[in-house]
TrEMBL record:
Gene3D superfamilies: YVTN repeat-like/Quinoprotein amine dehydrogenase. GO terms for cellular component: plasma membrane of growing cell tip. Keywords: Membrane, Signal, Transmembrane, Transmembrane helix. The chain crosses the membrane at residues 1158-1184. Residues 904-1154 form the Rax2-like C-terminal domain. This is Cellular morphogenesis protein. Residues 223-370 form the Rax2-like second domain. Residues 1-30 form the signal peptide. Residues 381-544 form the Rax2-like third domain.
Length: 1231
């Protein structure tokens, strides 16, 4: 069963999705978004309109930039929010964004600094840190660091940014400052990674992490221990002698002066300058050069210089001269004559290179030459390409670094990377860990604490970004367990980085090599991935860290006013508190300052506390319960409440139940309290998110909690609910949002960090999918003043069907999940909405419901199921009603009324019970019913699908259930195959679509004449490019219609039959499009004239539709010329959702004429009113004319005697006045 996302929507209530929500309570967003015009749908005559599909969150497409892209676990994004509250990506990265803050310099916002383990942002190369311009969303890289950033603190008072992580650069390691460029602190960082930074109330900066010494004390006890394999390089030379035995420039590799002679010495031509050059397949930073001069025939090199390539710089060296003094040289470095031993030259500067050249400018005797060369570095590497590993040479390296590999590895060129590397291309649907393996074996000459990092070349080098995945890294660091030393923990790493990166995989003790033990690092693919999968392996580095210089352990307080840092850490209560932690290099993961109190969380123990404590008044103090019983990974403060997340389940003393993964600590009451009953896993991130609750029109700050968990435990009246690694806590309601009757946006995925933007809404980082609100399986589409979506009072948990079909073998979808189909039934004084498919739900009475449910609008929208009888693994694919009987078909099995059912079940909607008589089961290899079509003005219900017989009756693909006799009837012979849909285009003509065979001919459309009982291939159906999976009429008489499906070349097609010929729709559908439903809808405003659709019509296309230039949408609108995204959705597993069907209350009105005609009575009344008005006008004019005449001719008053007013009333009955209006009068009234 698929777990529903941590939807931020309640599971009851409704919402119109044009949420012009005022979620931006703290200011408008810093970024603007163009709104999308309404599609002007007119749904009035259809009544209620519902959409069914496989989704857990859904939106109308309202703003440019909205999408249904899945959240990528291997990448992150800078996130902001649309005006409707939905999260959207500003810029995407190829790694995580772990920290961010507003960089304010001299009172002016410079941008948002953000850091993580990425190598690119929006296609811009950026190693671990970059700056976002909040005015235009442009990215500026902050170059100079190599590694990853874990923590940032923007100090607006000092106009600087403190940066912590696992990196080198700017002369520092793991901690540095950005002002206008990289600025080193007096202590040059730390000898281990920094994970958290805060500013104390006294202005000092507090660093937390996994370190026990400062950066400027981190130097190996033994330098120059790693031999660079010169023998693996391509060696060339100029001006080489032609003397046999001395002309090969490779003679001097792994040789010494004592081996001078033919085959061991390289000579130049007599009295000629020349050079010796080595080109490597990897990069390195040499620390020492060792040269052996030749004494062959009294010759030798006198002066030389070392040029680093490809930069071309001449290197500076120090060396010990013949007087025993330290000397310097650059372009004219000397070698002593007749010296049978080596001369060492130490590089003054650390410079990276992948080639070098030794230019010889002066010589002894008749010419120059050398008898040996060795090159050393401080760093200890093991390369996947074994040729690049340390050679066994001259006794310096007695064991040598090495590597071994198993699997289909090949060497890939370095490109822009530091070194060539191994690549394995793996295939298959379930790749195992032993499909490919590389074991790195470094040459560790001294035991000690090491930082171990692994290097991954970028995917843009070899164009494998689309096939990169995850690897698992394991290791063995010591011959046996050591007290206080944590063992190597396996690490899963994504290799989807666009540019080169390195990840720290271990910090701690490593044993030196001996005859019985050698440390190893093993890289394999994570099991369970699907090919094609590209795995790469390049190199591993071991960096020796010096012992601590005075008691640091995970915490360091830096006084920014001091330019010299004392090695006496006892003066800082914070440093002293860290020194008292166990184990050595105790991981401090989170620190938080509250006034004069510092809260510290991590994975450690101390004097009377575990994993969390506070420092105030110069003392380290335990929190109640002696701390927590396992690691703290994150903390967030909201007022007087400190929220803590991690891997704990209780306080250390075991007296606070319910603290599973997350807890709240009151800084005023000094007490722990649970968040509900916690979660069933680890909480890694807590990020504040303002949310607008639409029912109450209020905005509250909530806490988005994410990590690795799939359930939130129930407490009180609230039940345990499933989630996908995230949940929302509402502090003001003291409950999880899932349990509240509130509706707001839906978000699933991981939020990792947040940053305020002065004067604007905050910005976020993470990897999320987000829609306007949470709803599972079905929604209503409403059209009032604006279009909207309305939620059903249901909670659907889609399940993945074990039945490998959706309308089996028709469109190739392998699994079924969610709501597939539905019906709105309003006859016989009932008001029922039915949803069917493959899902689990809960009834209003708490009963479990599987695969088919009813929402009874006649009874307060109570939700019920069919009851026991149908097996839970059944899948419903089609429903229809005949009278009060529901016909529900699919891949169905079970037992109803002691009778086995298969493929089809009947249910009485009036009694809410199974029909007393059930059809005999449909038989066949699949037995699937995919279409049901009651015949108009008939007792017959036609059932189509993929079956061979009904009980003992042979009726392949289509069979008839006669409701009067309650038995199956065969329609006739000649048809076989898979039916996808059936539609009556007249009372006696049924159009059947699918992947069919009629009378031996393969086709996609067949007509059936119910009077003649004949199947006939539809005219021109052979030109349809593939099986039809979706069908709808295009006009009211069924003479025109639309079809869709997938062609033989795996591309989607959409075509219209205009009554004479097939007309394909315009191009605009991309690869992977899966059309599952189509329907013509009316518009309130006409669009431009097209040949495919009437001006007041649009075609709704449902499924997973890839719109060219946009991407996936769950529904699009086609106006005859172009496809426009309409509805977007996602599933609870952060993947794109889909819609499968639109069903309406009044399906007979899809083509109802919008032209208005007045009733005859109104026409008569209007005509009468006009006649009376004309009569009145004539009378008035007559009176005026008569008065004028009388005035001109004289006036004599009439007789004033009153007559009998009623004497003439009976002469003309009033009803005779209107007799001619009925057509039966003679036009004259009685005299």
């Amino acid at each position: 069963m698929r777990m529903v996302s941590s939807s931020l929507a309640s599971r009851a209530g409704t919402i119109a999705t044009l949420l012009a929500s005022l979620w931006l309570a703290r200011g408008a967003t810093a970024f603007s978004f163009a709104p999308i015009a309404s599609p002007d749908l007119d749904l009035t005559d259809l009544g209620r309109v519902a959409l069914a599909g496989d989704f857990d969150s859904i939106s109308l497409y309202q703003f440019e930039g909205q999408n249904e892209n899945a959240a990528s676990p291997s990448a992150g994004s800078l996130l902001t929010r649309f005006p409707n509250g939905v999260f959207t990506s500003l810029q995407e990265t190829d790694g995580e964004i772990r920290a961010m803050c507003p960089f304010i310099s001299n009172g002016t916002l410079q941008g948002i600094v953000f850091g993580g383990n990425f190598t690119s942002v929006g296609g811009v190369a950026a190693q671990g840190i970059a700056l976002l311009n909040v005015d235009n969303a442009n990215i500026t890289a902050l170059p100079g660091l190599n590694g990853s950033v874990n923590a940032l603190f923007c100090d607006k008072d000092a106009s600087r940014v403190y940066v912590g992580g696992s990196f080198t650069g700017g002369g520092a390691q793991n901690a540095i400052v950005w002002i206008t460029d990289w600025t080193n602190m007096p202590f040059s960082g730390f000898n281990g990674p920094v994970t958290t930074i805060a500013k104390a109330s006294n202005g000092n900066i507090i660093f937390g992490g996994t370190f026990d010494g400062l950066g400027n004390t981190t130097t190996p006890k033994e330098k120059d221990v790693q031999v660079i394999p010169v023998g693996s390089a391509n060696i060339t030379a100029v001006a080489t002698t032609t003397t046999a035995g001395f002309s090969d420039p490779r003679n001097i590799i792994c040789k010494t002066g004592s081996q001078d002679g033919p085959g061991n010495t390289w000579l130049l031509e007599d009295n000629a300058p020349g050079f010796w050059q080595a080109n490597f397949g990897f990069g390195f930073q040499p620390s020492k050069l060792r040269l052996y001069n030749t004494v062959q025939s009294d010759r030798g090199t006198k002066e030389w210089r070392f040029t680093a390539l490809p930069d071309g710089g001449i290197m500076n060296f120090t060396y010990i001269n013949s007087a025993g003094e330290t000397a310097y040289c650059d372009s004219r470095c000397p070698l002593p004559q007749n010296n049978n031993t080596f001369q060492d030259f130490h590089f003054v500067n650390t410079v990276g290179m992948n080639s070098f050249r030794i230019d010889i400018s002066a010589w002894y005797g008749q010419g120059a030459g050398l008898s040996g060369i060795e090159l050393f570095e401080n760093d200890i590497y093991s390369f996947a390409v074994n040729d690049f590993n340390e050679p066994l040479c001259d006794g310096v390296s007695t064991t040598g670094a090495s590597s071994s590999s198993t699997g289909p590895w090949s060497v890939s060129p370095s490109g822009q990377s530091n070194a060539q590397y191994l690549t394995a291309n793996l295939q298959g649907s379930n790749i195992t860990a032993d499909s490919a393996e590389v074991v790195f074996k470094p040459d560790i000459k001294q035991s000690g604490n090491y930082t171990v990092t692994i290097f991954t070349p970028g995917c843009t080098i070899d164009n494998t970004c689309g096939t990169r995945g995850k690897v698992n890294v394991t290791g063995t660091m010591a011959a046996s367990a050591r007290t206080g030393v944590q063992p190597f923990q396996s690490v899963e790493l994504f290799q989807t980085n666009m540019f080169d990166k390195y990840d720290q995989i271990y910090y701690g003790y490593v044993d030196a090599n001996d005859d019985a033990f050698r440390p190893t690092i093993t890289l394999t693919p994570v099991a369970g991935q699907t090919g094609p999968l590209t795995v790469v392996a390049q190199r591993v580095r071991f960096e020796l860290n010096s012992p601590t210089t005075g008691g640091l352990n995970g915490l360091f307080e830096y006084d920014t006013n001091k330019q010299v840092v004392s090695s006496d850490f006892s003066t800082s209560a914070i440093d002293v508190a860290g020194a008292g932690l166990s184990p050595s290099q105790a991981p401090v993961t989170s620190i938080l300052v509250d006034g004069d109190t510092l809260y510290v969380g991590g994975n450690f123990t101390g004097d009377g506390f575990s994993n969390i404590f506070s420092v105030s008044g110069g003392n380290a103090t335990s929190l109640p319960g002696k701390g927590l019983d396992s690691e703290v990974m994150t903390m967030y403060q909201n007022g007087s409440t400190l929220y803590v997340g991690g891997n704990f389940t209780n306080t250390e003393d075991g007296k606070s139940t319910g603290l599973k993964g997350v807890a709240a600590y009151s800084t005023t009451n000094k007490a722990w309290s649970p968040l509900g009953a916690g979660v069933n896993g680890v909480v890694m991130y807590m990020v504040p998110v303002p949310l607008n609750f639409t029912e109450e029109n209020t905005t509250e700050e909530c806490l988005y909690i994410s990590g690795t968990f799939d359930s939130v435990f129930g407490s009180g009246k609230d039940k345990t609910f499933s989630t996908d690694n995230s949940a929302i806590w509402v502090p003001s309601r003291q409950n999880w949002l899932h349990n509240l009757n509130l509706t707001t946006i839906s978000v699933s995925g991981v939020l990792m960090a947040q940053s305020e933007i002065p004067g604007s809404a905050p910005i976020f980082s993470g990897s999320v999918s987000s829609q306007a609100f949470g709803a599972s399986g079905a929604v209503q589409l409403t059209s009032g003043k604006t279009l909207g979506l309305e939620q059903y009072p249901i909670s659907v948990q889609p399940q993945t069907s074990s039945v490998s079909l959706r309308k089996r073998a028709i469109n190739g979808q392998e699994t079924i999940s969610g709501v597939v189909t539905g019906l709105i039934y309003t006859e016989n004084n009932l008001n029922i909405t039915l949803l069917a498919g493959h899902f689990a739900a809960t009834g209003s009475d708490g009963a479990n419901i599987t695969n088919l449910l009813f929402v009874n609008g006649s009874n307060s929208d109570i939700v019920t199921g069919m009851g026991d009888g149908i097996n839970s693994d059944s899948v419903f694919l089609s429903v229809a009603a005949y009278g009060t009987t529901l016909f529900a078909g699919g891949v169905i099995s079970g037992k109803v009324n002691t009778n086995n059912v298969g493929g089809l079940v009947l249910y009485d909607l009036s009694t809410a019970s199974y029909a007393s008589i059930q059809p005999a089961g449909l038989q066949g290899s699949d037995g699937a019913v995919t279409a049901i079509a009651p015949q108009p003005d008939s007792k017959d219900v036609y059932v189509g699908g993929n079956f061979l017989s009904a009980g003992a009756l042979s009726c392949p693909s289509v069979c008839i259930w006669n409701t009067e006799r309650s038995q199956w009837v065969s329609p006739g012979n000649g048809l076989s195959g898979n039916v996808s849909s059936m539609t009556w285009i007249s009372n006696n003509n049924l159009l059947i679509a699918g992947n069919l065979t009629v009378n031996g001919n393969t086709t996609t459309l067949v007509t059936f004449n119910a009077q003649k009982h004949e199947f006939t291939e539809f005219t021109g159906a052979s030109t349809v490019p593939g099986p039809v999976t979706a069908f709808c009429p295009a006009n009211n008489d069924g003479s025109q219609f639309w079809v869709a499906g997938t062609a033989s070349n795996d591309t989607a097609f959409l075509e219209k039959f205009d009554g004479e010929k097939w007309v394909p729709a315009a191009t605009g559908l991309g690869a992977g499009t899966d059309i599952r439903g189509i329907q013509v809808l009316s518009l309130s405003k006409d669009h431009d004239k097209t040949d495919l659709l009437e001006n007041n019509q649009v075609l709704l296309v449902l499924g997973q539709v890839n719109v060219t230039g946009f991407g996936n949408a769950s529904a699009v609108l086609f106006n005859g010329t172009a496809f426009t995204p309409f509805i977007l959705s996602n599933t609870g597993t952060n993947s794109p959702g889909s819609l499968s069907q639109a069903f309406v209350e009044n399906p007979q009105n899809f083509f109802h004429s919008k032209k208005k005609h007045l009733a005859l009575g109104f026409v008569v009344l209007i005509g009468l009113a006009i006649a009376l008005a004309i009569t009145f006008l004539v009378v008035v004019l007559g009176i005026l004319a008569e008065r004028l005449r009388k005035k001109q001719q004289g006036y004599v008053p009439a007789n004033q005697q009153m007559f009998d007013k009623s004497s003439n009333l009976n002469r003309v009955p009033p009803e005779h006045l209107f007799g001619t209006l009925h057509g039966n009068g003679n036009g004259r009234g009685p005299l």
